[in-house]
Design a protein that fits this description.
The protein has helices at residues 3-8, 21-35, 54-62, 73-86, 100-103, 123-136, 162-168, 186-190, and strands at residues 43-48, 64-70, 91-94, 109-115, 137-147, 172-179, 196-202. It is an alpha/beta fold and 203 residues long. A 7-stranded mixed β-sheet has the order 3-2-1-4-5-7-6, sandwiched between helices. The chain is globular, with a radius of gyration of 15 Å. Bound molecules: S-adenosylmethionine (SAM).
Length: 203
């Protein structure tokens, strides 16, 4: 998927999911499992492919110390506006999820969130991303990945299966799989997203 073009023409329907309770509720419930037993601040969180920082801002409001990374400058411009409007403090980095160390995101992340980036990468990029996440995540970290089911969808992300996730994160174990409900989104119905949240812990 050409995200540079998508942001240039104002096509970013994924941002609307923050207003879709079944999706937002499930994602935030998964995040809440990492907060149980802790008080804010909860620690460092990394939002991969943060886009306009919809979820990064949400995490920051909850009490996470957030870094968001994205490869598209226009998305990051929108993110900066959102961060300013929300009045939260978070760090935005221009870079690639396959080169987290090179991009200088830092390390020690207790929570790593990806809503919609991994499932659009090719196989080599997925393995690179998994390796980089392993390098920057804390020993007890949790990763939450939101993936379409694998299917050809023209220019849209091809999706990822459980096996694809396991291949890219060999040192991690999938501990939860939840339905990521994007209905009644018309695009989701047309392209049969069949979306899932995968929650991973280091094995
Ligand atoms: C479907 S959008 C989701 C954005 C955001 N996570 C959200 O839910 O609103 C995927 C995002 O991943 C970014 N992205 C795609 N490939 C990337 C890469 N290799 N490195 C960094 N960001 C990437 C895109 O620019 C885009 O903002």
């Amino acid at each position: 998927m050409n995200y540079r073009l998508a942001y240039a023409i104002g096509f970013h329907p994924w941002e609307d999911l923050a207003e879709h309770p079944p999706f937002a509720g499930t994602l935030l419930d998964l995040v809440a499992r990492e907060e149980d037993g802790y008080g804010p601040p909860y620690g460092r969180a990394l939002d991969l492919g943060t886009g306009s920082a919809v979820w990064a801002v949400e995490l920051a409001k909850r009490g996470w110390e957030v870094t968001g990374i994205d490869a598209v400058e226009k998305a990051l411009r929108r993110a900066r506006e959102r961060v300013e409007q929300a009045g939260v403090d978070l760090r935005l980095v221009h870079g690639d999820v396959t080169g987290l160390r090179e991009a200088g995101v830092g390390s020690g992340f207790r929570l790593v969130v990806d809503t919609g980036t991994f499932h659009g990468l090719d196989d080599a990029q997925r393995v690179a991303m998994g390796g980089q996440v392993s390098a920057v995540a804390a020993p007890d970290a949790t990763v939450i990945l939101d993936c379409f089911a694998p299917r050809r969808r023209g220019p849209l992300p091809r999706g990822a299966s459980r096996a694809d996730v396991e291949r890219a994160f060999p040192g991690w174990e999938i501990i939860d799989v939840e339905v990521a409900d994007t209905e009644p989104d018309a695009l989701a119905r047309l392209f049969r997203f069949d979306e899932r949240f995968y929650r991973l812990r280091r094995g």
